[in-house]
Design brief:
GO molecular function, one term: ATP binding
Structural class: alpha/beta
Bound molecules: adenosine-5'-triphosphate
Strand order of the largest sheet: 6-7-8-3-9-10
Order of helices and strands: EEEHEEHEHHHEHEHEEHHHH
Helix content: 25-40%
InterPro entries: AAA+_ATPase, ABC_transporter-like_ATP-bd, ABC_transporter-like_CS, ABC_transpr_CbiO/EcfA_su, ECF_ABC_transporter_ATP-bd, P-loop_NTPase
Number of strands: 10
Number of domains: 2
Distance between the termini: 40 Å
Keywords: ATP-binding, Cell membrane, Membrane, Nucleotide-binding, Translocase, Transport
Low-confidence stretches: none
CATH architecture of the largest domain: 3-Layer(aba) Sandwich
Membrane topology: Peripheral membrane protein
Pfam families: ABC_tran
Oligomer: single chain
CATH topology of the largest domain: Rossmann fold
């Protein structure tokens, strides 16, 4: 369920890595608490840079970012950072501990939690992510999908209200990608998290509430995922491919079988079934 408060308020945010290199310009947007936003766009358009600004890893050159009501400033960044978890592309770069258990516990140690609560959280989030049987393993013994589950467990154990996934599924195989997507869906369903996912994955975008399209460091579109996948020109400019069912509906339309565009999986099956049973 979406909350009524705002997780992020961005006003005319601009950022450059150097004087010659403006990356983001005039980005103004609000993100509702409890919502799941996909950040999409072609390579180099500024998605990761925006994620780092949101996560307090970089500071804006001009404009402002407010996180859950608190302005993100040099003086407040330490207070805001713990509210935001970030999961990156390469799970190997996210491992800190020598075992899965140590890795999940690592972030909690900095929070000065009582030992019993730390142990309980490690177990609870390991169980939630179905990695309880891996707690004693060394990271090198895990598959890519298992490593990414550990990375997510380590972030969720810190109980952030906001989680940013920066291409977290892009190095995973199809099965592990599907499993990670299910984790994201469960997180959304729990209503406990504001989620931002940077992704080129059509299914992941389709599962989110809203797609923000960046092009050359500016917001080019802000729309429902199904509307994004209904707009071939916009999709092309983001270098995205629509999910299979959307392409199927489009192809059926070309063949003269008319179904509304932008349908998602079960709706396509239902519409085709209706069509078939009315023959
Ligand atoms: N640390 C850095 N120093 C200098 N320039 C950078 C740095 N990180 C990114 N850039 C540049 O900023 C621009 C935006 O990069 P960014 O990684 O935010 O894009 P992106 O949309 O996430 O790309 P991709 O889809 O390829 O991951 C690019 O031109 C990139 O070369």
């Amino acid at each position: 369920m979406e909350g009524t408060g705002l997780a992020f308020e961005l006003q005319q945010v601009s950022f450059a890595y150097g004087p010659e290199q403006p990356v983001l310009g005039d980005v103004t947007l609000d993100i509702l608490q409890g919502s799941w936003v996909s950040l999409v766009g072609p390579n180099g358009c500024g998605k990761s840079t925006l994620a780092k600004l949101l996560g307090g890893l970089l500071a804006v050159n001009s404009g402002s970012i407010i996180v859950e009501g608190t302005p993100l400033l040099r003086e407040t960044v330490q207070q805001i950072r713990p509210r935001i978890g970030m999961v990156f592309q390469n799970p190997d770069n996210q491992f800190i501990g020598a075992t899965v258990e140590e890795d999940i516990a690592f972030g909690l140690e900095g929070r000065c939690l009582p030992r019993a609560e730390m142990v309980e959280r490690v177990k609870r989030y390991a169980d939630k992510l179905e990695i309880g049987h891996l707690l004693a393993k060394h990271p090198a013994e895990l598959s890519g999908g298992q490593k990414q589950r550990v990375a997510v467990a380590a972030i969720l154990a810190m109980e952030p209200g906001i989680v940013i996934f920066d291409e977290a599924s892009s190095m995973l195989d199809e099965k592990a990608r599907g499993e990670l997507l299910n984790i994201l869906r469960e997180m959304k369903h729990s209503g406990k998290y504001t989620m931002i996912s940077i992704t080129h994955d059509a299914e992941e975008i389709m599962a989110s509430d809203r797609a923000i399209v960046l092009r050359d460091g500016r917001i080019a579109a802000d729309l429902k995922p199904r509307d994004l996948f209904g707009d071939e020109e916009l999709l092309d400019s983001c270098r995205l491919i629509a999910p299979y069912e959307v392409r199927l509906v489009r192809e059926l339309c070309r063949q003269g079988i008319r179904l509304p565009a932008g349908y998602c999986g079960e709706e396509v099956a239902e519409a085709l079934w209706q069509l078939y049973s009315n023959k």
